[in-house]
Amino acid sequence: MRYLTLLAPLALSAFSAAAGAADCQPALLGGDVSVIVDGVEIVSGGRATDNFQIRVQNQADTGTPGAGGAGQCGATIRLARIDPGVDPDFPPYSLSAPGNRNIEVLPDLTSGGSVDSDIIIANAPSGPQGRVVPFQLNLATEWGLRAGTYTQHLRISLVDESGNVTDTGTLTITIIIPPTVSIRFVGAVVGGTAGAARIDLGNLSSTRETRSDPFGALILSTSPYLVSFSSLNLGNLAHDRSGEKIPYRLYFEGAEVDLAGVSEFPYFSRTPPSGDRRPMSIVVAPTQAPAGRYEDRITATVTAM
Fold first, then answer.
1. pLDDT at 150 over 50
2. Which of 104, 109, 220, 258 is the most buried (most CB within 10 A)?
């Protein structure tokens, strides 16, 4: 009889453990998740963020009438790449969630979880709203990115406390990088950061060519681009009072620019993060002209293609 008395609590304990496991069946709510990052500004040090959420619920059924459904249970969210290979031009981003400031996205669907990949959910309630797990996507929007629309699919895996995958979904991330260009003059110029840059040729010579000090255009672009020039005085320096003109030549990367007509210089790739430096120079032939101040205004236009 003593042995029968000892067996009763053992049987009851085993039954209770099995019921506890059956009461925890974490599931995803709301179906697949999509995140679209658009309208970003490409600048040095630029950043963009987008917030999204994944909802988790305990969908176990206690089977007890009037019990109000299952209780709470723990779970883990993991993200893994579905698409084969990685586009080298895909804008680099990071994901964060409560308890994990830099989520590791697993390289494939067969990879196991890690401390950096797992987003721990202490309890998934059984109510119809479930638990909202907030996520944030962080994207550096700096020069060096290539214009385009990029899409990546990640598998959302929900893992119970026993290590079993209980539900899966898809997280689709779309990032749109716009065609964007920027130009400023560097080198022997005055100003140019905001507003017009000035090139001072000094005193013109009557016996030899006058050449500008080295300067150039620094161009930043996320796409192929086109550089064109126009001149207020069609390639002439004009006296500030009489209007008398002195012709000059503008060179862009060693090629003479036709300031009286159309000169366009196409480039068929985006720039590196540091930009493209295009050397420029101005040459004035020996000249005999009335004393005074002469000037022209050149407009350089860069257009994304």
1. yes
2. 220
